[in-house]
Structures are given as structure tokens and as C-alpha cells.
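User: I'll paste a sequence; please echo it back and then give the predicted structure.

Assistant: Echoing your sequence first, then the prediction.
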Amino acid sequence: MKVRNFTLEENYNRRSDFNWAIINTYMYDRKICEIVLPLTHKRQQKKLDYKSEIQKFQKDFLGSNFYRIFQNIVRHYKQGVPLTPQEILCQYEDIMLERKIKMYATLCRITTLHKQIQKEIPFHYKQSYRDIDDIITVFLKDMKLFLAKPHQFTDKTIETIYHYLKSLS
């Protein structure tokens, strides 16, 4: 099963295992099974690296949107009916809109809960909560900015995907 993985970004490949599974399932008709491995992760308690975590989250968000459309592209390609660039762009925009709406709803819930905690937190915990308060405030601001940015496929992206799929045939 030596299949080259596909990622759009070479330096940071979040969610690329899904792309590998999609390729093996749709291009090579392999059955991919999930198994649970009983692993114990012993991670040291370390200070939260906010910038790193928010970048991982943003890459996960974009990666999960990408593999949803990638699955459709690969399936249609294998059936001999490749999607047109316009169809891909429309489907990707639909996926992004649906997921962004869910993210905005989640951000609204976080904002509401955050305000409620600020109002009702006992005085002797206010100082302890201030550090968390700052992180939450920055997170909400960063996520709103991230979601407001356009993230879409380009013709170059689509060309890269089809070039990759042709190399597998």
C-alpha cells in the first residue's frame, strides 16, 4: 500500500491521513478499517502555546473541509466523470459556508458563556480567571478574523489535484 499521500501544503500536513484513506478507498478499491489501539499518552504538563494551538486548529478546520471535497473529486474521477472546476468551487464554497455557520454558532455560545462567567464569578476567583479571560478574548477575536478570510480553491489547486490523480492511474 505504498501510495503517495496528497497534501496541498508540504510544510504542515494536518488531516492528510484522511486523504490517504480516500485515495486507497476510491482509486484502488481497498477497504480501510478503523482499529482502536490502546495507547497511553504520557504528556508532560506544559504551558499552553496559544499561537501554535490556534494554528493547528485552523489547519484542522481547513484540512477537514478539504478532505470532504477531495473525496468527491476522487470518486468522480475514478468513475470517469471528473468534476468541472466550477462544480468543485461551488461544492467547496457550500462546505465552507456550512462549517463556518456552525463555527460562528459555537463562537456565539462561547461568548455568551464567557460573559455569564464574568458576571457571576466570585470575587476571590476573579484574579485567577483573568489569565483565562485574556486567552478566551484573544481566541474569539482570532477565530472571527480567521472565519472572515476567504479560503477557497483556485484553478491551480484543482489542476494540482487532477495532476496527482493522473499520476496514480
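Residues 85-120 form the longest helix (36 residues). The helical segments are 16-26, 50-78, 85-120, 123-148, 155-168.
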